[in-house]
């Protein structure tokens, strides 16, 4: 079965430091890829998505992700963490078909230390 | 924000009782989904709908049923709640675009269900 792997269920960074959240997908055929953010007691909100074309994707709130086919990765980065970035982040992949085929990773909780 | 309302937002129920969760949208989107979120599992699809009266099973459909009699409403029913169904339930909506149905889904705020 196709899968999405997020390395690290918890990540802590200092305010102002680089944020790096890792995501790997399992298929040799590149899927469409998404990053979502979930704030406490909220639903998921789309940060960015990759479909085709440019491999560096820019999203909201200063986040970006780079699609690397050779590494089957889609890591999320932000140059400088803000306290407001503390949330849970989910990587997801759409391997084929409609959105009902989207597979979610298990999530990474980001803690930002003042 | 997409117009998605889940009700109730919180519910505690007893084992063996039926429970219905409601998702209401004002976006007129064709597709609606029910997910459950559990620690260590991310989001898993329970059921989805691709139109009025058109539904299909997802990854974890056992013990759940759904109905969609109107475009705007998608109901999730636990016929006889069990403790393993304690979870946070999310509704999502999307609209298909393009050949490969590349879409963005919009999520509701969730319903926290506790089965005691």
What coarse outline of chain A follows from CA principal-axis ratios?
globular
Strand content of chain A: over 45%
Low-pLDDT runs of chain B: none
Shape of chain B, please?
Answer: globular
Specify the biggest β-sheet of chain B.
Answer: 7 strands, mixed
Global Rg of chain A? 13 Å
Q: What is the first-to-last residue Cα distance of chain A?
A: 40 Å
Strand content of chain B: over 45%
The chain-level structural class of chain B is mainly beta
Number of strands of chain B: 11
Provide the helix percentage of chain B: under 10%
Order of H and E elements of chain A: EEEEEEEEEEE
Q: What structural class results from the helix and strand content of chain A? A: mainly beta
Number of helices of chain A: 0
**Largest binding interface between chains:** A-B, 23 and 27 residues
Question: Which short descriptors sum up this protein?
Answer:
heterodimer, A: about 110 residues, 6-stranded mixed sheet, 5-stranded antiparallel sheet, globular, B: mainly beta, 7-stranded mixed sheet, 4-stranded antiparallel sheet, 11 strands, about 55% strand
SSE blueprint:
The complex is a heterodimer of chains A (114) and B (116).
Chain A: E1 4-7, E2 10-14, E3 19-25, E4 32-38, E5 44-50, E6 56-58, E7 64-68, E8 73-78, E9 87-94, E10 102-104, E11 108-113
Parallel strand pairs in A: 2-11
Antiparallel strand pairs in A: 1-3, 3-8, 4-5, 4-9, 6-7, 7-8, 9-10, 9-11
Chain B: E1 4-7, E2 10-13, E3 19-25, E4 31-38, E5 42-51, E6 54-57, E7 64-70, E8 73-78, E9 87-94, E10 106-107, E11 111-115
Parallel strand pairs in B: 2-11
Antiparallel strand pairs in B: 1-3, 3-8, 4-5, 4-9, 5-6, 7-8, 9-10, 9-11
């Amino acid at each position: 079965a196709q899968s999405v792997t997020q390395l690290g269920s918890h990540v802590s960074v200092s305010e102002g430091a680089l944020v790096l959240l890792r995501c790997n997908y399992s298929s040799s055929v590149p899927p469409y890829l998404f990053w979502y953010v979930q704030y406490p007691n909220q639903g998921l909100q789309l940060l960015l998505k990759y479909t085709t074309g440019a491999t560096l994707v820019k999203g909201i709130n200063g986040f970006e992700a780079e699609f690397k086919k050779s590494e089957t990765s889609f890591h999320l980065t932000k140059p400088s963490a803000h306290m407001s970035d503390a949330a849970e982040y989910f990587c997801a992949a759409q391997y084929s078909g409609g959105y009902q085929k989207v597979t979610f990773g298990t999530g990474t909780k980001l803690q930002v230390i003042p | 924000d997409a117009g998605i309302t889940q009700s109730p937002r919180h519910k505690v129920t007893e084992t063996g009782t039926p429970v219905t969760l409601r998702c209401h949208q004002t976006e007129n989107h064709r597709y609606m989904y029910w997910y459950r979120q559990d620690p260590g599992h991310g989001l898993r699809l329970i059921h989805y709908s691709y139109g009025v009266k058109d539904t299909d099973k997802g990854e974890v459909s056992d013990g759940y049923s759904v109905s969609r009699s109107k475009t705007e409403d998608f109901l999730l029913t636990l016929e006889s709640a069990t403790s393993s169904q304690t979870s946070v339930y999310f509704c999502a909506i999307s609209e298909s675009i393009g050949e490969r149905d590349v879409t963005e889904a919009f999520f509701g705020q969730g319903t926290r269900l506790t089965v005691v």
